[in-house]
TrEMBL record:
Protein name: NAD(P)-dependent dehydrogenase, short-chain alcohol dehydrogenase family
NCBIfam families from the UniProt entry: PRK07231.1
Matches recorded under InterPro entries: NAD(P)-bd_dom_sf, Sc_DH/Rdtase_CS, SDR_fam
Domain of life the protein comes from: Bacteria
Origin species: Algoriphagus hitonicola
UniProt similarity note: Belongs to the short-chain dehydrogenases/reductases (SDR) family.
UniProt lineage: Bacteria, Pseudomonadati, Bacteroidota, Cytophagia, Cytophagales
Length: 254
């Protein structure tokens, strides 16, 4: 019971990493979890998987200020406090060289992955402060630590979240708000299937094989591997950890 009695909000909560984290949070004693996602279909599926739990399901676009304010306000109204804010929603964009990358796609990736995180802290900090502080967790990527050809918007967005995380750690510390980021290597879920297909249409399997060879522990991460780090950062075990880039990558960047 690592987070007994705590309340959490998870954006991208209907996705691979988000939903697995919600399940782990409940298992570890969370009193309530708000699942925030853009996908109505995803939220329906999350609802069926979290049946019987004290979960809130909120449809929202994290890149829109009014939506972010709304899900923070609704969570506060229902739960009375927010202890854990997991800013995890993200999009991969497309796989194309910078020369061919569509500008509207670039704007979308930056809007969700960067502005979404900024808005999360902008509207979330006052709520966490009311409860005496808390933990903000941002899902970046190994793409925030090194370049990868053909995914410029994604790489730029995940580097940018480190700047937001570090600034958030400094601005949140006086109010006992910790801010950290998680940097997963490829995770065996929808997003990687989409990227594998983008890198080599029709032969995504070979791309997966290639990536796997670059991971010293010899496999992709599971959603649960990332959820474990999101649990550690949410719990009081990480009470002196803030401003940190937590790499969960099987040795990929070693
Ligand atoms: N899958 C990987 O290999 C991998 C590796 C490193 C980092 N990440 C990051 O992990 C996070 C979670 O991704 P995932 O792997 O679970 O993939 P996913 O696609 O299963 O989950 C992402 C979720 O975010 C939601 N979302 C997208 N745009 C949104 C918006 N504007 N507002 C609200 N919700 C929105 C999607 O509907 C989806 O449910 C992302 O930030 C991603 O960039 C993923």
């Amino acid at each position: 019971m690592e987070i007994k009695g705590k309340y959490a909000v998870i954006t991208g909560g209907a996705g691979g990493i988000g939903l697995e984290t919600a399940k782990l949070y409940f298992k570890e004693g969370a009193e309530g979890v708000a699942i925030v996602d853009f996908s109505q279909e995803g939220l329906q599926e999350a609802k069926s998987q979290l049946m019987g739990q004290n979960a809130l399901f909120i449809q929202a676009d994290v890149s829109k200020s009014e939506d972010v304010k709304r899900f923070i306000d609704e969570s506060m109204e229902v739960f009375g406090r927010i202890d854990i804010l997991f800013l995890n929603a993200g999009v991969e964009g497309v796989v194309k060289s910078m020369v061919d990358y569509p500008e509207d796609k670039f704007d979308q990736v930056i809007g969700v992955n960067v502005k979404g995180v900024w808005l999360g802290m902008k509207h979330g900090f006052p709520a966490l402060k009311k409860g005496g502080g808390g933990s903000v967790i941002i899902t970046s990527s190994v793409a925030g630590l090194r370049g990868t050809a053909q995914v410029s918007a994604y790489v730029a967005s995940k580097h940018a979240t480190i700047g937001l995380m570090r600034t958030g750690a400094l601005e949140g510390a006086p109010d006992n708000i910790r801010v950290n980021s998680i940097h997963p290597s490829p995770v065996d879920n929808r997003m990687m299937r989409s990227l594998e297909e983008g890198f080599s249409p029709g032969s995504g399997d070979q791309v997966k094989e290639g990536f796997t060879k670059m991971i010293p522990l010899g496999r992709y991460a599971e959603n649960g591997d990332i959820a474990e780090m999101a649990l550690f950062l949410a719990s009081d075990r990480s009470r002196f950890v803030t401003g940190a880039t937590m790499v969960v990558d099987g040795g990929f960047t070693a």
